[in-house]
Design a protein that fits this description.
It is a single chain. The protein has about 200 residues and is of the alpha+beta class. The N and C termini lie far apart (about 55 Å). The longest helix has 23 residues. The strands form three sheets. The chain has a six-stranded mixed sheet with strand order 1-10-9-4-5-6. It has five helices and ten strands; from the N terminus they run H-E-E-E-E-H-E-H-E-H-E-E-E-E-H. It has one domain: Glutaredoxin (3-Layer(aba) Sandwich), CATH 3.40.30. This is Photosynthetic protein synthase I.
């Protein structure tokens, strides 16, 4: 009987110690978006900017990067996403200068470099539109686990596409995926944590 009691006391002491140690551990801040730290996808990109320069994630080291797939003729999702990103950047105050928003077109046939530049800078002068060939765009979307497809609409077409924003920390690591239904305040809060 004493052995049973001793085991019970030992088990209770172990549980209490485990609880104390857990309480002493630094807590990872809760993110509003989906924490994808350590993800094995979306690790880089290689696309052209409107001036024809090749851009990669390394160009933005030291900044938080928000990357979004879309197209300039999008009626609602894309303008909403870019307007929200501009608002989140503004909410960050001085920290906003360390945020780079990148808009990757899934419609390179219509989104010429000039169209991309005019579209993205209308939301914020620092926003950058990137493009590739049809094949490069398809390969990049696959690497990001993003989806898009051309949908005929009479004599023209529209594009169905993933409405997520991929967020990199200043060390160029993919950390968060933000959903389209989140607010600018939630975007800004997650960016503030990554930039701290």
């Amino acid at each position: 009987m004493p052995n049973l009691r001793r085991r019970s006391l030992l088990a209770a002491a172990t549980a209490a110690m485990t609880g104390l140690l857990a309480a002493c551990q630094p807590r990872t801040p809760t993110l509003n978006g989906i924490d994808v730290s350590g993800a094995d996808y979306g690790q880089d990109f290689r696309l052209l900017d409107p001036e024809g320069r090749t851009r990669t994630l390394a160009d933005f080291k030291g900044q938080a990067v928000l990357l979004f797939f879309g197209f300039t003729q999008c009626p609602d999702v894309c303008p909403t996403a870019l307007a929200r990103a501009a608002q989140a950047k503004s909410l960050l105050g001085d920290l906003g200068s360390r945020v780079q928003v990148i808009f990757v077109t899934v419609d390179p046939e219509r989104d010429t470099p000039q169209v991309l530049k005019a579209y993205t800078t209308a939301f914020d002068p620092s926003f950058l539109g990137l493009h590739g060939t049809l094949e490069e765009t398809a390969a990049l979307a696959k690497d990001f686990k993003a989806h898009y497809k051309k949908v005929p609409t009479g004599a023209s077409y529209t594009m169905d596409h993933t409405a997520l924003t991929y967020v990199y920390d200043p060390a160029s690591m993919l950390r968060v995926v933000l959903r389209h239904d989140q607010t600018a305040e939630q975007f800004a809060a997650d960016l503030r944590r990554l930039l701290a």
